[in-house]
Amino acid sequence: MKIQVVGVVGAGVMGIGVAQNLAQTSHQVILVDISEEILDKAKKEIKNNIRFQGFFNKNEKAENPDNILHRIKFSTNYKFLESAEFVIENATEKWDIKKEIYAQLDAICPPETVFAANTSAISITRIGSATKRADKIIGMHFMNPVPMKPMVEMIRGYHTSDETISTAKELLAQMGKEGILVNDSPGFVSNRVLMLTINEAIFLIQDQVASVSEVDRIFKTCFGHKMGPLETADLIGLDTILFSIEVLYESFNDSKYRPCPLLKKMVDAGLYGRKSGQGFYTYNRAI
Ligand code: NAD
Fold it and tell me: What number does CATH give the domain 190-275?
């Protein structure tokens, strides 16, 4: 049975992509963030992204962007999420923020509603502990940009039920995606490896071993990667990289996850990457 109404919490880089993808696959979306200003920016960004996508897929019959946008309700009020059959949470990668959000969702949404955490590193079992429905909590680690990435890393928390996994797989299929299911561990598979790689690449810059473009070119031309680690860092957002590596550091108590001081400095300076217009590279259009 088709899931009709999906709540999306957080209207940043990932929430925007998830909401757009859902609306384009005919779901009704309730997109919640903490300020009208952020939501207005998200609305503009989604509209631009739909137009941009239409420009590249000229052969496909494109739906009017306004019709797609009409399926998204933008609000700062969590109360509207009471009608959501499924919620995908994409808020800032900070445990204190997420803990509060899950307590609110748990109080507002019907007991059968599944909550999917689109987190980079926080344990899904830990997120489950912030609710009274740990069996209905699952990790759905979407890739960026969401509408263009067909694969999602799915994470089974300690209490996640088989029913929750099949509901989440069903929603992914409706969104035109597939999932690879892994067991819970901070950072899962992707970010236990990727965050260390990016952090080490930043140490290379700090130690002046090579320039930004040289580091990225080695990964692209020698290994055949589509993007180098520093371009990837700018795409993800340096603030999100820092928060994620801090989660890994705290979760494993292992010094191999200590964040590079240059990463901290760049975040303190507001150099977040693509979303701020400046990171390791400069971008014409800040998101
Ligand atoms: P972001 O900083 O771009 O956006 C986070 C959004 O959450 C902001 O708009 C913020 O206002 C909002 N927020 C904060 N507190 C909130 C609250 N109480 N209620 C509702 N909204 C709230 O971050 P992002 O890159 O979109 O990341 C969001 C989540 O997705 C993080 O957990 C991150 O680790 C994960 N993630 C990021 C990427 C990526 O490439 N950026 C990929 C996969 C997963």
Answer: 1.10.1040.10
